[in-house]
Amino acid sequence: MAVAAGTRIGFIGAGQMAEAIAKGLNSAGVVRCDQMIAADVNLGRCQVFQNLGIAICGSNTEVAEGSDVLILAVKPQIVEKVATELKPSLSKNHLLISIAAGVTLVNLQRWAGEARVVRVMPNLPCLVGATAAALSLGSSATQADADLVIKLFDALGKIHVVDEKLLNAVTGLSGSGPGYVFLAIEALADGGVAAGLPRPIALSLAAQTVLGSAKMVLETNKHPGQLKDEVASPGGTTIAGIHELEKMGFRAALMNAVLAATERGEKFSK
């Protein structure tokens, strides 16, 4: 379902994640590209947005003045500078959605002044309508704001409401998780090539295997351990492969990756 026709979405920063969100919202029919505006210091990224039919503004201030909802999509290290510069242009009528990892609601609210603030941690698969995201509301944000953000990001996949203290864990798991999964798909495909499969077939099989396995977890509501047991027959090929993964500390490596990314997010929060 589309948001109100008059609603204008402004992107402060036109990087890859902003592009993914813009494309996803447009593809889902929730917000059209002609309802969006953007600004970025990188002219190449501005051209990408223009090619989508999104109007480019000459400054972040111009984006704020022409938007109802602002998506702050800049690197965490420059959020304070950008938000502080925007502050005179923001009012209580603005909803500011920050997707910057580790930047706290308290700081966002202080830098953004009267604007209502929400933090969202999406991930890159919002580009294909399959994001895994979470949101936390600032002190001045309303239930209507939460409903709007849920509507926006539900159109891009799945979103959960969590306490802000859990957002760094979300960053470590689903925010960074696609990187781990892409690495796993590449490795599975390499294994197929090593076993004699042509690379295009190996890559297709690997990616579809990950996709299908994820769908089974989500659609059957079975624990992944139970699904693993169902595919690993006694003395069979799967249990032999699982044995090798266990010997190499596969599960511990993934857990450590999530914890390392979470810790990095916590550093941004300080």
Automatic annotation (TrEMBL):
Any Pfam family hit: P5CR_dimer
Keyword NADP attached: yes
Enzyme Commission numbers on file: 1.5.1.2
Reaction(s) catalysed (UniProt annotation): L-proline + NADP(+) = (S)-1-pyrroline-5-carboxylate + NADPH + 2 H(+)
Keyword GTP-binding: no
Domain annotation Pyrroline-5-carboxylate reductase dimerisation: ranges: 164-266
Protein keywords: Amino-acid biosynthesis, NADP, Oxidoreductase, Proline biosynthesis
Pathway: Amino-acid biosynthesis; L-proline biosynthesis; L-proline from L-glutamate 5-semialdehyde: step 1/1
PROSITE patterns: P5CR (PS00521)
Domain Pyrroline-5-carboxylate reductase catalytic N-terminal, chain residue ranges per copy: 8-102
PANTHER family, sorted: PYRROLINE-5-CARBOXYLATE REDUCTASE (PTHR11645), PYRROLINE-5-CARBOXYLATE REDUCTASE 3 (PTHR11645:SF0)
Descriptive protein name: Pyrroline-5-carboxylate reductase
